[in-house]
């Protein structure tokens, strides 16, 4: 899996709303999926949907959290064949399968077993795994080794482990957004762990929702040199510069596992930001682009003009370079 990065939101939350006293920013925040969330929606009334947000989080966690022992996905991973998955699982499954096929397996929700085996935790040296161990784990990797039949997951390999971490938070953003749209909101912004979706604008300030893309700083500091306006779309950013290991030659390896070989591979890509209609798609495609690397990402985006992307990478001189594709804001 690829590290999900924080997006900074420039919405002037603490600024007085004197611009239009008839409108209110209804703001909520809290914890979700091992990170934080924030929601703001603009209306003429002051409203509190905190309990509804908590309910959404609990339902999605019970469906797809690998950190909850009795969640549906955990039970499936343990071999329970009686589990009937809910609509949330089915939605994420369908998108995972679509992007798995589009990327020829580069995006694969079953690769987590190898990411964990390579122990990409705190920064440290790359320690090689035994090739027999890698081959053994690879035998269980591949979304094609699973089928969804009558709301039940059927495994062709009992050891196949599913982990929707690469798009579940993005999906939760979409669920929050659809909840707000169902309530009639036309101006809102939802963010969970850096994945974000907006509709309309900050009508109080009479400005678009402004989002900053984090710079790839290896010293763990935060800065933002790219700011984009978000209008009726979603954005997600994935990066490799905060979670990596170094081999004996000083080569830096991000925690990107080649789904064909089972080995980590070097890449000059530092981060990928994607604008898409849904946050689940933006989340998954950003992860896929990071796994592809620069050259393959450019080729992939040529055939997917509906995806806007902003890539940050190291050029041949080890200098920082950027590339905006398919109409991603150049400002």
Q: Secondary-structure element sequence?
A: EEEEHHHHEHEEHEEEEEEEEHHEE
Overall residue-averaged pLDDT value:
85
Shape category: globular
**Computed structural class:** alpha+beta
**CA radius of gyration:** 20 Å
Strand coverage percent: 25-35%
Q: State the separation between the terminal residues, measured CA to CA.
A: 30 Å
Question: Care to count the β-strands?
Answer: 17
List segments where confidence is low: pLDDT < 50 over at least 5 consecutive residues.
1-6, 10-18
Helical coverage, percent range: 25-40%
Biggest pleated-sheet summary: 9 strands, antiparallel
Secondary structure tally, helices = 8
What report would you give on this structure?
- Helices cover 28% and strands 27% of the residues.
- The two termini are 30 Å apart.
- β3 and β4 form a beta hairpin.
- The radius of gyration is 20 Å and the shape is globular.
């Amino acid at each position: 899996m690829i590290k999900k990065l924080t997006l900074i939101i420039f919405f002037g939350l603490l600024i007085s709303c004197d611009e239009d006293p008839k409108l209110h920013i209804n703001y909520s925040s809290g914890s979700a999926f091992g990170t934080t969330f924030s929601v703001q929606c603009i209306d003429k009334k002051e409203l509190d949907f905190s309990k509804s947000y908590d309910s959404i989080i609990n339902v999605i966690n019970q469906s797809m959290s690998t950190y909850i022992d009795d969640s549906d996905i955990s039970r499936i991973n343990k071999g329970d064949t009686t589990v009937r998955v809910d609509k949330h699982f089915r939605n994420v499954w369908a998108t995972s399968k679509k992007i798995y096929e589009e990327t020829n397996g580069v995006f694969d929700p079953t690769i987590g077993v190898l990411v964990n085996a390579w122990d990409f935790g705190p920064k440290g040296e790359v320690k090689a795994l035994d090739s027999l161990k890698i081959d053994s784990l690879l035998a269980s990797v591949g979304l094609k080794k699973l089928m969804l039949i009558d709301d039940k997951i059927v495994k062709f390999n009992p050891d196949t482990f599913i982990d929707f971490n690469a798009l579940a938070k993005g999906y939760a953003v979409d669920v929050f957004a659809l909840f707000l749209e169902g309530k009639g909101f036309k101006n809102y912004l939802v963010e969970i762990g850096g994945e974000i979706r907006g509709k309309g604008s900050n009508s109080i300030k009479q400005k678009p929702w402004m989002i900053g893309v984090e710079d790839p700083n290896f010293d763990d500091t935060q800065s933002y040199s790219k700011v984009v306006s978000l209008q009726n779309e979603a954005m997600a950013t994935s990066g490799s510069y905060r979670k990596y290991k170094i081999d004996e030659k000083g080569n830096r390896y991000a925690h990107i596992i080649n789904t064909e070989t089972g080995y980590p591979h070097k890449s000059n890509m530092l981060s990928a930001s994607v604008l898409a209609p849904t946050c689940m798609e933006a989340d998954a495609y950003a992860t896929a682009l990071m796994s592809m690397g620069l050259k393959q990402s450019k080729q992939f985006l040529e055939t997917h003009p509906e995806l806007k992307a902003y890539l940050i990478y190291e050029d041949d001189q080890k200098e920082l370079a950027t590339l905006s594709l398919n109409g991603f804001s150049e400002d």
